[in-house]
Amino acid sequence: MHQRSVVRVGASLIVASLALTACGSRSGNDSGGSSGGSTKTAKIGVIAPLSGDLSALGLGIQHSVELAVKQANDSNAIPGWKLEVVPKDDEAKPDPGKNAATALAGDADVIGVVGTLNTSVSQQVQPVLAPKNIVQVSPANTGPGLTQGANWQTAPQRPYKTYFRTCTTDAVQGPFAARYLYETAKITKVATIHDKKAYGQGLVGTFTEEFKKLGGQVVAAQTINPDDSNYQAVISAIKPSAPQAVYYGGEYPQAGPLSQQMKAAGLNVPLMGGDGIFDPKYITLAGKTSDNDLATSVGAPVDSLESAKKFVSDYNAQGYKEPYAAYGGYSFDAANAIIAALKTSLKDAKDVESARQATVDAMSKVSFDGVTGKVSFDQYGDTTSKVLTVYKVAGGKWATVETKAFEDK
């Protein structure tokens, strides 16, 4: 994601706003299975925002991993081994994320990690987990540099062979939004704003490049600070250029008030953003004038997928206090990708640490039909699926506009 801060990929249209702590929200039986004397334990960590503004998304990630692990234990998916979930709260901030990764890396029983939500957080987590050969699978990071390096546009090079993701990237999401605005919505003039974080800056960058390539004009390009709440200055700077839409790189806590203040100032054009704003809280913050605002998100709406029906049913049956939210399906698939690799790496392993490298190696061969579609990874650790969806606010709710696979031109 969703700096998300990355984005900081299936989406549920209902996201709860309850913010519980990791221990308070953890649902009873996430390990399941039997615990005979010869059974060994392997732990799967979760690094996500389990408190704060983005906790609804983070708790959906946590519970979806818990569900995958419970089902694996109940079916004895890895004979002789019991899996356990260890959730860590990163608060959607890099330093707490690094601390969470350090704690998990110091545990000899940790075999893999699902997370993070935010790109900026993963930038700190990757170099902690990689030296320990701990596989990391993000359900929500969309920053291209995480898998293809700082020069991903001209000289892609994989920085960490331990890192994978089940969602597509902003190298796809930004251009996807640009094509929708220019080709479908027939909007030829836009203004852009981003929050200076890795997710927002990257998203606006790929959007801008594609929009100009198509023939569109970026009539103004502005930035805000991550802790700003009053956007009158940036709105005043943009308004004279008469954009037909504003494309925003960042997340809903700022995007919602920005949209509201735009409309109040007479800039009555749609605000569009990436998966970082695709949340019911955005509409709450943006208010009644948010109708016709737009967002893209990775994948198809989970509740519309035939492949997701069992996941949705099983999740609801567990009685978790929070819904699976925007990244539940991708988190469930991420956990099951690790579990699929563990079926190979733990088969004859004497302990977890000796199986870590084999787990990383096995991840590159993982391929199965998941909740969100085909789950497999390319040479960079990126998902091979490039399906995205455009959503529009209509009557106070996010409504699906179109879902399609992105194709290079």
TrEMBL record:
Q: Which keywords does the record carry? A: Signal
Question: From what superkingdom does this record's organism come?
Answer: Bacteria
Q: Which residues form the Leucine-binding protein domain?
A: 42-396
Pfam families for the chain: Peripla_BP_6
Q: Where does the secretion signal sit in this chain? A: 1-21
PANTHER family per the UniProt record, alphabetical: AMINO ACID BINDING PROTEIN, LEU/ILE/VAL-BINDING ABC TRANSPORTER SUBUNIT
Sequence similarity: Belongs to the leucine-binding protein family.
The name under which this protein is listed is Branched-chain amino acid ABC transporter substrate-binding protein
Q: Which organism is it from?
A: Kribbella jiaozuonensis
Q: Cite the source lineage.
A: Bacteria, Bacillati, Actinomycetota, Actinomycetes, Propionibacteriales
